[in-house]
Predict the 3D structure of the following.
Amino acid sequence: MEKPLLSVRNLTIDIPVGGGTLHAVRGIDFDLNRGETLCIVGESGSGKSLTSLAVMGLLGKTIRRTADRMDFDGTDLTRANPRTMRKLRGARMSMIFQEPMTSLNPAYTIGDQLTEALLLHKPVGREAARARAVELLEKVGITAAESRLSQYPHQLSGGLRQRVMIAMALMCEPELIIADEPTTALDVTIQAQILRLLYDLGREMNMAMILITHDLGVVARVADKVAVMYAGELVETGPAADVFNTPSHPYTRGLLRCIPLPGKTERGSTLGTIPGIVPSLVGDIEGCAFRTRCPYAEAACRSEIPRQGSAGHAFRCIHEDGKRQAEEATA
Amino acid sequence: MTRQSTQSSPVLELRNVTKTYKVKQGLFGKARPLTAVNDVSLSLPRGEVLGLVGESGCGKSTLAKILLGLEAPTHGQVLVDGEEIGAQDRLSLARRIQPIFQDPYSSLNPRKSIFDIVSLPLRVHGVGGPQDWEKQVREILDIVGLPARVMNTYPSQMSGGQRQRVAIARALIMKPEIVICDEPTSALDVSVQSQILNLLGDLRREFGLTYLFISHDLAVVEHLATRVAVMYLGRIVEEADVAGLFDHARHPYTQALLKSVLTPEPGLGVPDTQLGMAYPNPIDPPSGCQFHPRCPLATAHCKAKAPRPVPTPQGLVECHLYDTESPMFDNKAA
Amino acid sequence: MAHIDNTDPLLQEITGPTPGQMLRKRVFGHQGLLIGAVVLIILLFIAIFAPLLAPHDPYAQSLMNRMEPPVFLGGTWEHPLGTDHLGRDYLSRLIYGARVSLLIGAVAALISGVIGTAMGVAAGYFGGRVDMVVTFLINVRLAMPVVLVALAVVAILGGSLQVVIVVLGLLLWDRFAVVMRASTLQVRGREYVAAARAIGASTPRVILSEIMPNIANNLIVVITLEMAHAILLEAALSFLGLGVQPPTPSWGLMVSEGKNMMLFEPWLVLIPGAVLFLLVLAINLMGDGLRDVTAPENRS
């Protein structure tokens, strides 16, 4: 088996808050191979965005990150000094944010911002950088790319700005792209186009991608691997087809029942819900974090939760197959 | 809900409603008209849910503001129960139409207790006294699934889903006939969204409410709506009942919208909507059919001539392909 | 379902403090604010109870006892802070002077606060022409040099407490207007304002009960700053002889009267100067503190 491009073991993120420590991410593991797309899906506060920032080394100073291992193609990210991280960011791994309006600098032209990273990281001239920028803008489907270089971000629509962000992330041909809710702020038709673009480019350039999203529809369509995150833990991980076809953790199934499925869910019928709320992440959680909302919770859920399933498709639950078959039988 | 009316008579009707803004470009630029809502006619029968879908900037939120009396239409009429809105005073309009907004973090005044927020309509309309208010607030909170003790708390102490329930309680306390839901769940987490959608469905059945449900999420619209109108650049390009629209979409734009819905079904990949990408600038709308620059089926005729609304048994559609008098009329498509 | 720990999930959720509780906690955790407030309250107390606290009549002259030094410079306890060039008890004049300073600060800030807030809120809420007119007025006002205009007006009308208060009140509204306009613009776009309008609430009601509570924190901060500003301007005008007229005890006037003897009897200038400094510092500490304390809510 090939060596994964990114390998994370026991990643923990702690944020000091007024009344103690908020354990935002509680010991998660994942691997990502070249050319693969991993979707981290979860609701707000699950720690998915912090996870991506932790990989990029972009967490704030007050936030504490620890990991047994965080290996990016032989570089140990837990020990990398700021200079090494700066070299990696932009050149070998880059990030696409949710809100293209705030992540582009309004004071500089599109061309300046596109070429900046390339000029910084690679020994290329200004002309070559501009040529590369035009090439990429065309690749992300922007017409009249040459003339766009002298435009400012406010002159572009939201969809175009997000395309520029993608082109910017691709300038140095990174091996890893982290996209945090890249299409959430966009309209549905634009969302489909942007996702398709990311998907195709990833395949074409053999890039690994981590896509952070709350949208299960997006996950199902673009992910190779899925990681479902709840209260700072990965409750279920596996190939997209397995996770969606045989969702084993009760939380994953609960989420899937919440969304109306055109053609499958009866129109106007009552949708599934997950009662209760996410537990407070300040302090320790005893046993399974989902037990306060889980229909199958029992006393044993307060103890250590085993990881079940195969190496490919794993989930954390004390019940065999997370009561999936029992649930399907009653349905 | 004592007003006598038959099931089919529209409780809300829009006739040729147009809203134009003057937009100034630059300090000394000339003001140019921006037509946010362009000659929209819609009718909403009592007890139905009209889903209004379209991309941002298509005019759906402006339409909601007109219905709430927050903006006056430039032309056209809005009729509630057959009476024109302009002629009624704002208070009686407010009794009949109430909004639920998208962002429950912005729609509740952070300085006010939940009791103050929910009872505001009663106080504005001078209904009853403080004793009644508390009783009514208690009742409505119970209906939306909140315990009475939240009355003394503040919005900052609540979660997004709870806040949206408070917003719903405020909208319903005067027992309106029509509720304008402007993206009521798009700021919420998936598990909370389904709770709010269920609540909205239950409330409609229980109180015979009529909804105008504005959303960009087609799966949600399909689930909740009985009729659907698709808006593009201020115009309604297709309108049909929910089955007709989702099972047999006719307008190429509707088809593209439906195609772009990403359902959680692995292996299907990301669809190719075949839309030209850019949403046009509403200040410079395209000639002819406004959708033609993005339409995969567009011809020279579409660029030259704007289609007229074609009435069909299913509902209206604005496309040359379905107009028997158009040279582009396509028997197969129709 | 018997194993679910929280039978009432809502109970868990509503545990945070109310906005009022949070504010109280922040207020009592802010040292600058507390120090400023304590000093200000003491000065306010002194001003209110001046007749009871002052050992002598501040106007009573005693030419025999002119320019007696304070106790700490070898004076007697009869006049703890000495006497001025007319033999008036310096401590008593200082105590009565607090009345003048605080009165001018408070009333001038109140007048300009009402004018500026009305203009700023109207401009922010209604926009369009109203905004254009208000913005124009603000620019006109900003183009006028305050001290010069105040000097000119006082020179024409003659100096008195009332004139100084009114002139300062009519001149210091610019910051109120600018800040209130910006805050209103920000709040006006919130959906709860649209919701209140959709409920049928009248415009005054929307402004008073939806907008004002959410911009009040900014207003309080500007009030404190302008109070300090007005107090300093009064002192400056009085120093130049165009403010409060003698024999009214005003700190600015006291500095002015003492300046001739400054080289020989520096305490005549230093004592009123120091209390003026203390008062303005206290007010500014409080204003800064209030801004710190109310800011976190704006962020959330």
